[in-house]
Amino acid sequence: MHKGAKVYVAGHKGLVGSAILRKLQAEGYSNIVTRTHQELDLTNQQEVYRFFETERPEYVFLAAAKVGGILANSTYPAVFIRENLLIQTNIIDAAYRYGVKKLLFLGSSCIYPKFAPQPIKEEHLLTGALEPTNEPYAIAKIVGIKMCQAYNKQYGTNFISVMPTNLYGPGDNFDLETSHVLPALIRKFHEAKVAGAPHVVVWGSGTPRREFLHVDDLADACLFLMNNYDSSEIINIGVGKDLTIAELANLIKEIVGYKGEIVFDTSKPDGTPRKLLDVSKLFNLGWRPRIRLEDGIRSTYEWYMQNYT
Ligand code: GDP
């Protein structure tokens, strides 16, 4: 991508899209196109075609998606499968029809089988059953990958698919019903500290292991891959290390400065037992994350306090 190339960031208000937009601006890309949800309904095919016909972007970051944590996914499975299928199908097809030079599709680590060998390699895709709590979302993302590959094969497009691990950072969703674990725990510990509450409830057993990548590192990796990776094969983006939910809870508790107890609510689901990505493919290309988890949580906590409290 040259600095004057026309780049469309789909989903620029979201956690991932806003980080990609910040990164593009910081790197001096001067011709970035965005549309808010109100301006362009990505589930509407005609609107999406019209947008691509008028704007003719050269590069597309497909970061628009319906996303949510374990509870949101299991409560609204129909919404998750429908919206994601529509958004990605419309954009991928429009990118082909209107001659986009390269598209980067954001997948997710939940596309891998629930009991995939750890760390999870790219080739483990479609080798086993998925985690049921987010299967509809994962199936939609798998369709997106297969669609990019099919278009590359049949039409000679250059559509790449990247699989980020669990993400966090500024712009995260802190709604306790729909958020992922890391922002939820920042909020829970902060509110408990302010209220002087004796304990904080953490869902599940605390034993599942998760890997966390700061969204600014993800954005950096996405630009790196847009400029350095041309293959239909999917590629993982992560940090290569994980920790238990209990360890994460203790780390956040310490950063927030909460002095009470942690109580595990085992009536809530654990989800998949472990989800650590094998990032050797990406690391072999020369990319590395820069933000340590502790520093990332600290700055995300500051962002939360400035924007939510
Ligand atoms: P997942 O990675 O797709 O399973 O999604 P989440 O980030 O929502 O959950 C990760 C793990 O954190 C699961 O084992 C949850 O049960 C656990 N967890 C503990 N406390 C919370 C919480 O307050 N909110 C959420 N979303 N998950 C929590």
UniProtKB/TrEMBL annotation:
<comment type="pathway">
    <text>Nucleotide-sugar biosynthesis; GDP-L-fucose biosynthesis via de novo pathway; GDP-L-fucose from GDP-alpha-D-mannose: step 2/2.</text>
</comment>
<comment type="function">
    <text>Catalyzes the two-step NADP-dependent conversion of GDP-4-dehydro-6-deoxy-D-mannose to GDP-fucose, involving an epimerase and a reductase reaction.</text>
</comment>
<dbReference type="GO" id="GO:0070401">
    <property type="term" value="F:NADP+ binding"/>
</dbReference>
<dbReference type="InterPro" id="IPR028614">
    <property type="entry name" value="GDP_fucose/colitose_synth"/>
</dbReference>
<feature type="binding site">
    <location>
        <begin position="164"/>
        <end position="167"/>
    </location>
    <ligand>
        <name>NADP(+)</name>
    </ligand>
</feature>
<feature type="binding site">
    <location>
        <begin position="106"/>
        <end position="109"/>
    </location>
    <ligand>
        <name>NADP(+)</name>
    </ligand>
</feature>
<keyword id="KW-0560">Oxidoreductase</keyword>
<keyword id="KW-0511">Multifunctional enzyme</keyword>
<dbReference type="GO" id="GO:0016853">
    <property type="term" value="F:isomerase activity"/>
</dbReference>
<keyword id="KW-0413">Isomerase</keyword>
<dbReference type="Pfam" id="PF01370">
    <property type="entry name" value="Epimerase"/>
</dbReference>
<feature type="binding site">
    <location>
        <position position="188"/>
    </location>
    <ligand>
        <name>substrate</name>
    </ligand>
</feature>
<feature type="binding site">
    <location>
        <position position="210"/>
    </location>
    <ligand>
        <name>substrate</name>
    </ligand>
</feature>
<feature type="binding site">
    <location>
        <position position="270"/>
    </location>
    <ligand>
        <name>substrate</name>
    </ligand>
</feature>
<dbReference type="InterPro" id="IPR036291">
    <property type="entry name" value="NAD(P)-bd_dom_sf"/>
</dbReference>
<protein>
    <recommendedName>
        <fullName>GDP-L-fucose synthase</fullName>
        <ecNumber>1.1.1.271</ecNumber>
    </recommendedName>
</protein>
<feature type="domain" description="NAD-dependent epimerase/dehydratase">
    <location>
        <begin position="7"/>
        <end position="238"/>
    </location>
</feature>
<feature type="site" description="Important for catalytic activity">
    <location>
        <position position="110"/>
    </location>
</feature>
<keyword id="KW-0521">NADP</keyword>
<dbReference type="InterPro" id="IPR001509">
    <property type="entry name" value="Epimerase_deHydtase"/>
</dbReference>
<feature type="binding site">
    <location>
        <begin position="11"/>
        <end position="17"/>
    </location>
    <ligand>
        <name>NADP(+)</name>
    </ligand>
</feature>
<feature type="site" description="Important for catalytic activity">
    <location>
        <position position="108"/>
    </location>
</feature>
<feature type="binding site">
    <location>
        <position position="203"/>
    </location>
    <ligand>
        <name>substrate</name>
    </ligand>
</feature>
<dbReference type="GO" id="GO:0050577">
    <property type="term" value="F:GDP-L-fucose synthase activity"/>
</dbReference>
<feature type="active site" description="Proton donor/acceptor">
    <location>
        <position position="137"/>
    </location>
</feature>
<feature type="binding site">
    <location>
        <position position="141"/>
    </location>
    <ligand>
        <name>NADP(+)</name>
    </ligand>
</feature>
<dbReference type="GO" id="GO:0042351">
    <property type="term" value="P:'de novo' GDP-L-fucose biosynthetic process"/>
</dbReference>
<comment type="similarity">
    <text>Belongs to the NAD(P)-dependent epimerase/dehydratase family. Fucose synthase subfamily.</text>
</comment>
<feature type="binding site">
    <location>
        <position position="180"/>
    </location>
    <ligand>
        <name>NADP(+)</name>
    </ligand>
</feature>
